[in-house]
Amino acid sequence: WHKFGNIFMGFLFHHFNDDYDKMIAYMHDLLCVHSKVIPVTTDSAYIQATLKDGSIVERQDNISNVCGYTSPIVRLSLMQDSRNARHQKSIDTTLMNADYIILSPWDLYTSTISNLIIGDVADLIKKSDAKILFIANTTNKWWETFGYTILDFVSEIEKYLWRKVDIIIANSKHLTLTQ
């Protein structure tokens, strides 16, 4: 269930003797990335989801890929041993000088919100003058966001950002299958 990018990054990380900066630089060159990709953290950061029924689902893979929990997620947080995870310091200047901060459509809790709860990322975004642009996901995950509307996605993001999303991009057309 892992994304190819994660597997590839794991391989390169090992190949470059666990040097994250060298791995990212190599990926930029290999993939011809002309902008700068900054990972939120290089610290171990494990997440947990608190469900409405009070139960807790630990770790990204279980939250994202293991179906079976029927109560909705009400809170995402770092697990106890990850609460000291820090964000990359280069993010401070990047967020404060940005014109736009774009949140793209991946899994709401395990890909988007999980990055907002590390270090002071949400606080930095709150203080930034940048416009927040959210590209809405057009697909729900049965166990993570089943039944969510675009407004539910935006509401959850705003809950963790402590500020409003300025721009929402969403598909308004229904998928038509042709043969």
Summarize the structure.
This protein is of the alpha/beta class.
How is the secondary structure organized here?
Elements (H helix, E strand, L loop, with lengths): L3 H12 L4 H11 L16 E5 L4 E3 L1 H6 L7 E6 L11 H8 L2 E4 L4 H9 L4 H7 L3 E5 L6 H4 L4 H12 L5 E3 L10
Helix pairs in contact: 1-2, 4-6, 5-8
Written overview of the protein:
The protein is of the alpha/beta class. The chain is 39% helix and 15% strand. The chain has helices spanning 4-15, 20-30, 60-65, 90-97, 108-116, 121-127, 142-145, 150-161; strands at 47-51, 56-58, 73-78, 100-103, 131-135, 167-169. It has a three-stranded antiparallel sheet with strand order 2-1-3. The protein is globular, with a radius of gyration of 17 Å. The two termini are 29 Å apart.
State the helical fraction: 25-40%
- What is the 3D form? globular
Task: Give the class from helix and strand content and strand pairing.
Answer: alpha/beta
Q: Report the biggest beta sheet as strand number plus sense, adding barrel if it closes.
A: 3 strands, antiparallel
Radius of gyration: 17 Å
Q: Give the SSE order as H and E letters.
A: HHEEHEHEHHEHHE
The share of residues in extended strands comes to 5-15%
Kindly state the number of beta strands.
Answer: 6
Terminal Cα separation, in Å?
A: 29 Å
Label this structure with key terms.
8 helices; 179 residues; 3-stranded antiparallel β-sheet; alpha/beta
